[in-house]
Write a structure and sequence with these properties.
about 180 residues; alpha+beta; four-stranded mixed sheet; two-stranded antiparallel sheet; 6 helices; about 15% strand
């Protein structure tokens, strides 16, 4: 599983270089599952200028291109289309493309992608016979619920998710269907 963590909102993170992007692209054949956000997917494909031109058809095409570069399964997170938010995916085991809507909490929290990736890792380990789409649906719902709770917390200079507040509930929530 690989989460490239290279950029967001259409931009490569400050201090990162195109060499890093090339390195991530070279590692795709080693990944059973990659989980880039839309920016990272487009950076890998060399199409970052298309960030503001996403459509459902294009996102599924980009997933196919990432798969052709060697990634077995692909999830592209943080896709905004017509005011709604989605995670698009392809499962190689099921040969199935899908998109999952999620509730966007309108505050930027650092680390939400890391939490989503961790939830997906747990799903793959705990529920290996569950469909990828179902895994994404549960993980997206879980992270949205956490962020809704975090939104109520007083904001500080650094906005981060206090995941430790949810560990016990998460431990019991992710059991086989």
């Amino acid at each position: 599983m690989a989460d490239p963590i290279m950029g967001d909102l259409g931009e490569l993170y400050s201090g990162l270089t195109p060499d890093l992007v090339a390195g991530v692209r070279a590692m795709l054949p080693l990944a059973d599952l990659i989980i880039p956000n839309l920016t990272e997917a487009l950076l890998i494909l060399g199409k970052e200028s298309e960030y503001h031109h996403a459509t459902e058809e294009r996102v599924f095409k980009w997933i196919q291109e990432l798969h052709e570069l060697g990634a077995k399964s692909v999830l592209i997170t943080s896709v905004a289309l017509e005011g709604a938010f989605f995670i698009f995916g392809y499962s190689h085991q099921e040969n199935h493309y899908f998109k999952v809507p999620y509730k966007m909490v309108p505050i930027h929290f650092g680390g939400t992608g890391d939490i989503f990736t961790s939830l997906m890792a747990n799903e793959l380990l705990e529920n290996p016979t569950t469909t990828m789409q179902k895994m994404v649906e549960r993980s997206a719902t879980t992270i949205s619920k956490i962020l809704i709770q975090e939104e109520k917390r007083p904001r500080g200079v650094i906005d981060e998710v206090f995941i430790q507040n949810y560990l016990e509930a998460l431990q019991h929530a992710y059991r086989a269907d």
